[in-house]
Structures are given as structure tokens and as C-alpha cells.
Amino acid sequence: MTSRYIGVFSAGTIHRYVFESNTALRRTAKVRAHLVSLTGRFAADRLTALAQAQGAIMKTVPEVLFVCVHNAGRSQMAAALLHHHAHGTVNVRSAGSAPADTINPAVGEVMNEIGLDLSQEFPKPLTDDVVRAADVVITMGCGDACPVYPGKRYLDWDLTDPAGKTAAEIRPIRDEIDRRVRELITELTAHPAQS
Q1: Counting Cβ atoms within 10 Å, is residue 66 exposed (0-12), middle (13-18) or buried (19+)?
Q2: I want to staple 129 with a disulfide (CB 3.0 to 4.6 A). Which of 34, 37, 50, 59 is the partner?
Q3: What's the pTM?
């Protein structure tokens, strides 16, 4: 990972981000078999976000961050749907103010029904760097846990939490998120970010 960010960050910064990312993921991980690879993905995403926020890496498309409490349901569905529908015209991240250890299995089931696989995704803690890199931050019930930065656009999507719900109860939530995501793509691609 160090070579990917040579000239952007010092080795000390990279090592600190890897250590902090591992520590954050360890707090909620019940199964640690994949912790090394998840740490690498999480640290790389955070370092990219930090580089974007500092202007060291230029953004070519708008950045959207979805935030919910556990990053195990609503924000994961929204991120997958936006990634799917945007076809590279928008970059998307998701995070949780109090991340769960795994994605809600019923959420995975209803996303599989429409051809979107969440099996490689994992709940990620909300960090300052991903908020600073975002052009649009969409909260879904995380309350005051999301930091507020000037110049960012904040939206709150009041959506039912799928936690404890059956697949049949989650489908309407998924469909409402899909509707909102499609509207967001239209808006963002009509008026690209100026960052």
C-alpha cells in the first residue's frame, strides 16, 4: 500500500492510517479471518479520501457519502444502488456512526434479488476524512454523529431502519432508496461538482 501513496503522504502517515483503520475495524469484528484484507481496503479508501480533501488527488466525479447508524442496511443499499446506476459518473462511499459487525443478511437477500451482491462489503466506521472528501453527505438516521464541514451539501433521508425486519418488509425500503438514488444521479450529473 505504501507505494500507491508515495509522493502524496509520508510513510508515517500511511502506517498511522493502516493502524487506525485496523483498530477501528477490530472494535466491531466478531470474525477476524478477513481483517487484514478489510483493513487494507478501508485504509486505502481513507487515504484516497484524505488526498482528495487536501487536493493532492483531483476528483473527476462528484463524491457521495451515505451515513447511517450501523452501516449494515440503508447506507449499504444506497451505496450499492448509486454505484450500480451511476456507471462511474459518481463515486460513492458509506459509513456508520456505530458500525455493526456484518451487513444485515435480509438486506443482502433483497439486494441479491435485483442482481446486486453485497457479500464483499462490510460496515465501516465514520471518519473525518471521508466526510471531508464528500461533496454530498446523506444521513439516514445517524443524528448528530456526522461531522459538519462548511461547503458540503447535507441531506437527510428519513427512511425506516431495516434492522430486525424481514425481506418482505425491507423491499419497500430498498425501492424507496432506489427512487431517491436515481433522482440524485440525475441532479449530480446535470450539475457536476466543482472541486
Answers
A1: buried
A2: 50
A3: 0.87
